[in-house]
Specification:
Rossmann fold; single chain; binds guanosine-5'-triphosphate; globular; 35% helix; 18% strand; binds magnesium ion; alpha/beta
C-alpha cells in the first residue's frame, strides 16, 4: 500500500447492487468517468466484486464497489451472490438499481440493507431506454413497496448522475467524517509519548499502519509527539521536562509500560484507540467481561483481518491462545479465521477476539459486532482482551 494515499479502510465505501444486466457497471463507469468495470449485454459479466479507490470531488476519498447481479443462478452464481453479500457488509452507502417490474429479489436485498442500517439510494437505470409510462409505473411501484423516491439515471446520456452525487453526499452516514483516532484525548501542545516495539511482527523498514495513522492524527491535533521502543521508555521519560500527558503503547508491552509510567500520564494502547476508531469500544469492553467466565471447556474464536504467514511470536495465533490456556487450562479450544472468513454462526463460541482491523473499514467491523450481538456471542479485540487478561483494563484511559 502506498502511504501517500488514503488507506482503503478509511474511504467511504459505496456499493452498487442490482440484478444482472441492470446496468450497474455502466453506471459506475459513467458516474466516475472511467472505464472501471467491464460492460456487456451478457448477464453475469461482473463476477467478483470490483473495488476501485478514487476521489470524488465534493465527497472525498471513496471506494466504489461494483458487484455481481444478486439474481445470479446455479452453483457458481450462488458463490457470486455470496461475494456480493460480503461486499454489502463493507458498504457505507448503497446504490440499489431497479431495472424491471418484478421486485421480488429487490425486496429481499432491501430488507438486508435495512437490517444493516445502510443508507440506500434507489435508482431506475437505463432511463433513456424506457418510455415515460414504463418509468412512472416502476417508480410508483418502488414508492409503494419501499417508500423510496427512485432517481432516474442513464449511463448512456448521463442524465441523473448529478442528482446521484447529491444523494450520495446527503446519505454519508453520520460520524463517518468525524472519525479521529486521538481527538477525544488530546489538546494542542500536549506531549504524547508512543511506545512502539519494532519486533518480529513489524515490517522491515516501515511502521505498521495504526502507528502511522496515529502519528498523523496527533500531528493534525498539534501535539508534540515522541516515539520510542520499550527499551528507551525510561530514557524518554527522563529527557522530558514534565511527564507526558498521554502515553500510547503497543498492547504487547502494556504491563511493562504501566509499571514504569508517571502517575499523571494517562495510558492507552493503539488497539484500544483503534477499537473505538474502528469498532465499538463499549461492545469490546462488555465482551471482555466474558473472559472471567471462561473454563477449560470453552471455545474461543480468534478473527484476523489480514492474512499473513504465521510468525513465531504471532499475537493472534500464539500469544493470546497461550495467555488463555495458561489461565484456563490447556484444553481450552482456540479456532482461528482470517481475512474475509467469518463463521455465519458464531454461537458455538464463548468469546470472539478480533484483531485491531487496520485493514478493515469501520462498517465491516461494526457488522461483525452486530452479528455477534444477535447470536449472543461476546466479542472483544486483541488490545482489550490483553488488557483484561493482564488485569490492567481498569487502568486504561478510555476517554
Ligand atoms: N441504452 C442504455 N444501455 C445501457 C445503460 N446502462 C447499461 N446499458 C447496457 O446494458 C447492458 C448491461 O450493462 P452492464 O453495465 O454490463 O450491466 P451489469 O448490471 O453490470 O451486468 P452484470 O455485470 O452482468 O451483472 C450493456 O449492454 C450496457 O451497454 C443505459 O443507461 N442506457
Ligand atoms: Mg457488471
Amino acid at each position: 500500500m502506498e502511504l501517500q494515499q488514503t488507506p482503503g479502510a478509511n474511504r467511504l465505501h459505496i456499493g452498487i447492487f442490482g440484478r444482472r444486466n441492470s446496468g450497474k457497471s455502466s453506471l459506475i463507469n459513467a458516474f466516475t468517468g472511467q472505464e472501471i468495470a467491464l460492460v456487456s449485454d451478457v448477464a453475469g459479466t461482473t463476477t467478483d466484486p470490483v473495488y476501485k479507490a478514487m476521489e470524488i470531488p465534493g465527497i472525498g476519498p471513496c471506494m466504489l464497489i461494483d458487484t455481481a447481479g444478486f439474481d445470479d443462478v446455479g452453483d457458481l452464481g450462488q458463490m457470486r451472490v455470496e461475494k456480493t453479500r460480503a461486499a454489502l457488509r463493507k458498504t457505507d452507502v448503497a446504490i440499489l438499481v431497479f431495472s424491471q417490474a418484478d421486485l421480488s429479489e429487490e425486496q429481499e436485498w432491501a430488507k438486508q440493507l435495512r437490517q444493516q442500517k445502510i443508507p440506500v439510494i434507489a435508482v431506475v437505470s437505463q432511463s433513456d431506454l424506457r418510455s415515460a409510462q414504463e418509468m412512472d409505473a416502476l417508480k410508483q411501484k418502488i414508492r409503494e413497496m419501499f417508500q423510496w423516491d427512485a432517481l432516474e439515471v442513464s449511463a448512456k446520456d448521463g442524465s441523473g448522475l448529478e442528482r446521484l452525487k447529491e444523494e450520495l453526499l446527503r446519505n454519508i452516514p453520520e460520524g463517518f467524517e468525524a472519525a479521529s483516532i486521538v481527538g477525544h484525548l488530546v489538546s494542542p501542545e500536549d506531549v504524547v509519548l508512543l511506545v512502539m516495539p519494532q519486533d518480529i511482527q513489524a515490517p522491515k523498514g516501515r511502521l505498521i499502519l495504526p502507528q502511522v495513522q496515529t502519528i498523523r492524527d496527533l500531528l493534525d491535533h498539534r501535539c508534540v509527539v515522541m516515539s520510542v521502543t520499550a527499551q528507551q521508555l525510561d530514557s524518554a521519560l527522563s529527557a522530558l521536562a514534565k511527564p507526558p500527558k498521554l502515553i500510547i503503547t503497543d498492547s504487547q508491552v502494556f504491563p511493562y509500560v504501566f509499571e514504569r509510567k508517571p502517575e499523571e500520564s494517562l495510558l492507552t494502547s493503539f488497539s484500544i484507540l483503534f477499537a473505538a476508531y474502528k469498532g465499538d469500544l463499549q461492545a469490546f469492553v462488555d465482551g471482555a467481561k466474558a473472559i472471567d467466565a471462561l473454563t477449560g471447556e470453552s471455545r474461543v474464536l480468534i478473527a484476523e483481518a489480514c492474512t499473513h504467514a504465521p510468525l513465531e511470536e504471532d499475537i493472534g495465533r500464539v500469544k493470546i491462545p497461550a495467555m488463555l490456556r495458561k489461565r484456563f487450562g490447556a484444553s481450552l479450544q482456540v479456532d482461528l479465521v482470517s481475512g474475509a472468513d467469518f463463521p455465519a454462526d458464531t454461537s458455538p463460541y464463548d468469546l470472539i477476539i478480533h484483531c485491531g482491523a487496520c485493514m478493515f473499514n469501520r462498517k465491516h467491523v461494526l457488522s461483525r459486532i452486530e452479528q455477534a450481538k444477535q447470536q449472543g456471542t461476546p466479542i472483544c479485540n486483541y488490545g482489550v482482551s490483553i488488557a483484561k487478561l493482564t488485569g490492567i483494563l481498569d487502568h486504561v484511559f478510555l476517554g
